[in-house]
From TrEMBL, chain A:
Heteromultimer composed of HisG and HisZ subunits. It comes from the Bacteria. Belongs to the ATP phosphoribosyltransferase family. Short subfamily. It comes from Filibacter tadaridae. This is ATP phosphoribosyltransferase.
TrEMBL record, chain B:
Residues 14-315 form the Class II Histidinyl-tRNA synthetase (HisRS)-like catalytic core domain. The gene is hisZ. Its main location: cytoplasm. Required for the first step of histidine biosynthesis. May allow the feedback regulation of ATP phosphoribosyltransferase activity by histidine. Belongs to the class-II aminoacyl-tRNA synthetase family. HisZ subfamily. This is ATP phosphoribosyltransferase regulatory subunit. NCBIfam families: hisZ_biosyn_reg. SUPFAM superfamilies: Class II aaRS and biotin synthetases.
Length: 208, 416
């Protein structure tokens, strides 16, 4: 039986997922807190784990370099890969929101400037609302943009809201709820059906 | 792209694979009675905008001709063939089986700029029946297994099944689009929250919720799907699928089949059975097809049809390590002394007439040619001989060489 390749987003999601995997009885003997290995094999040889950057997980899965992947809904929404999205782990929960200064709701009659790590999500959201925007793509510290007058609002993920609060920003609108999801390559689902369904089943068992 | 022909170049090897695969596929298509055709490289832009929901206009490569008319580089083959056929007949009185091996052009936005792809496909215009569907699906499966890809899976669905459910739901175009996306992603969580608030009956809700799970071995899926087939139309569609599956078992293809009632093709012209083929290690379908009985209506004709197309580049990638490559491109090399030039040319011609691949080289220039050949023929002033598998056999005239080669032909690797 050949192994199922699993692409896991490094960082926040990875730590929680490793716990879940361990609960599901999938052990990685080589894994420890300071582990720098990028490829790990599970004890029973059924799963080959790849640690990749979160935004790249959809790419690995869509191209078939990994059969399945675990990644946040925010990344899936941004990249829109052609894959199956079979499971919601309901962990690593947060929200994608529009945030800005209190009482300054985006309005239809003027162009607003939006700073974001998620240009595609932001664009779709505002186009649907009929609000014209100018997008600024940033890679971190998004909250800074409105403070220094570079943008009117931001589109970003919010977990507790404390960063927003400390910088005097509020949530103006919620775009979507985010949590870790399981995505599957469509070809792998056809050619490795049994192995993949087995992995999903054992993960599902842990969630309930 | 296979334009670089340096010796031992990867491109050269790739191109040989490309040819070998096309040859194998064409042969298979012909064994089912298909005739090869070709369609023009340039097509009217209007042809593709007329056929609704087929190819997005952004995907097409546009060209403007001398008179200011907008043309496109052939983005698909099915539509022009159907149009052509519809122009001649308004109603089908005879069957037509055509196949093609051509490049199609689509603008892709994945940043790799690969806008040219070779497709090999068939179109079968004939009465719609489970037998016709099974025959075409069997052909698609056999085409892939012919290439040594034994692990292939053919996913079969029905375009009408989801459409029928949609028609029961009275949704806006945007809602249909959203739901289609969720079904394509088998996103159970979001489907659930999406239909929760919709003013639709419990039966439809249950059916929609079930769709992502209607995937797997044909019998199991049929059994589970029967529960949600609450209209006669849905039942008909399931029965049709069941018949096709039964027929495919007769073809001996049971192990290759997967039923997927959540399969929705992005080509909007499919109306009946749809299918796609996957092989291991390739992340996208290597072939796609389906029944498109209504496409002819767009051109005022009644032409039931079914077809599929294979992606040659994906098949080359998939069979990369499985095809037995023959590195030997020559059957015989004739090395002659300058005095024997006339015999050499004569012998080479005789052998070529018999379809052997032959090179003739003067002995002082043989160092410049490194191509391998199955045997070597030496025409020296003193004597003539044939070297095959380290065994040197002398001969006097050309008919003897032909006979010697003929004897070896059983184990011989030559083009015939």
């Amino acid at each position: 039986m050949c192994a199922v390749t699993l692409a896991l987003a490094k960082g926040r999601t990875a730590d929680r997922m490793m716990e879940l995997l361990a609960k599901a009885g999938i052990q990685f003997p080589d894994f420890h807190a300071t582990c720098r290995k990028l490829v790990l094999n599970s004890e029973d040889g059924t799963i080959k784990l790849l640690f990749v950057k979160a935004v790249d997980v959809p790419t690995y899965v869509e191209k078939g370099a990994a059969d399945i992947g675990i990644v946040g809904k925010d990344t899936i929404m941004e990249e829109q890969p052609n894959v199956y999205e079979l499971l919601d782990f309901k962990v690593a929960k947060c929200q994608i929101v529009v945030a800005g200064f209190e009482g300054k709701q985006p309005e239809k009659d003027k162009v607003i400037t939006v700073a974001t790590k998620y240009p595609s999500i932001a664009e779709r959201f505002f186009v649907e609302k009929g609000i014209r925007t100018e997008l600024i793509k940033l890679n971190g510290s998004i909250e800074l943009a409105p403070l220094i007058g570079m943008s009117d609002v931001i589109v970003d993920i919010v977990e507790t809201g404390s960063t927003l609060k400390e910088n005097g920003l509020v949530i103006l609108e919620t775009i979507a709820d985010v949590s870790a999801r399981l995505i599957v390559n469509k070809a792998s689902f056809a050619t490795k059906t049994i192995q993949i369904q087995q992995s999903i089943k054992s993960l599902k068992g842990v969630l309930e | 792209m296979y334009t670089d022909y340096r010796l031992n170049d990867e491109n050269l090897i790739d191109y040989q694979k490309y040819e070998q695969i096309i040859l194998t596929i064409s042969k298979r298509f012909m064994t089912y009675g298909y005739t090869r055709i070709q369609t023009p490289m340039f097509e009217q832009y209007d042809l593709y905008t007329k056929v609704t929901s087929s190819i997005h206009q952004n995907e097409m490569m546009k060209v403007i001709d001398g008179t200011g008319q907008v043309l496109v580089l052939r983005p698909d083959v099915t539509i022009p063939i159907t149009r052509q056929l519809a122009a001649g007949i308004s109603e089908l009185r005879n069957e037509y089986r055509y196949f093609y091996v051509q490049d199609v052009f689509r603008q892709t936005f994945d940043g790799q700029g690969n806008s040219q792809r070779t497709q090999a496909g068939v179109e079968y215009f004939g009465v719609s029946s489970p037998e016709a569907d099974a025959e075409v699906i069997a052909l698609s499966c056999q085409t892939v297994t012919d290439l040594g890809l034994q692990d292939c899976k053919i996913e079969i669905g029905h375009a009408g099944f989801f459409n029928e459910l949609i028609s029961e739901m009275n949704l806006t175009a945007t809602q249909v689009k959203m739901l289609t996306k969720m079904i394509q992603a088998k996103n159970v969580t979001e489907i659930e929250s999406f239909i929760l608030d919709l003013p639709i009956g419990e039966k439809v809700k249950k059916a929609i919720m079930m769709i992502p799970f209607l995937y797997g071995k044909p019998e199991e899926v049929q059994y589970r799907a029967a529960e949600i087939a609450f209209t006669p139309n849905l039942k008909n569609k399931l029965e049709h699928l069941a018949k096709v599956v039964e027929l495919l078992k007769l073809y001996g293809l049971e192990d290759y089949l997967v039923l997927d009632l959540g399969l929705i093709n992005h080509m909007g012209y499919y109306s009946g059975i749809i299918f796609q083929g996957f092989v291991e290690h390739i992340g996208k379908p290597v072939l796609m097809g389906g029944r498109y009985d209504q496409l002819g209506n767009e051109f005022e004709a009644e032409i039931p049809a079914i077809g599929f197309a294979c992606e040659i580049d994906s098949l080359i990638e998939a069979s990369a390590n499985r095809l037995v490559e023959s590195p030997i491109q020559l059957d015989a090399k004739i090395i002659y002394d300058s005095a024997c030039i006339s015999q050499s040319i004569q012998l080479a011609n005789e052998l070529r007439d018999q379809n052997y691949r032959v090179l003739s080289l003067p002995s002082q220039k043989k160092v410049f040619n490194h191509q391998q050949s199955t045997c070597t023929i030496y025409l020296e002033e003193a004597s003539h001989s044939l070297l095959y598998q380290e065994k040197k056999t002398p001969f006097v005239n050309s008919s003897e060489v032909v006979r010697l080669l003929e004897e070896e032909r059983g184990t011989y690797n030559c083009v015939l």
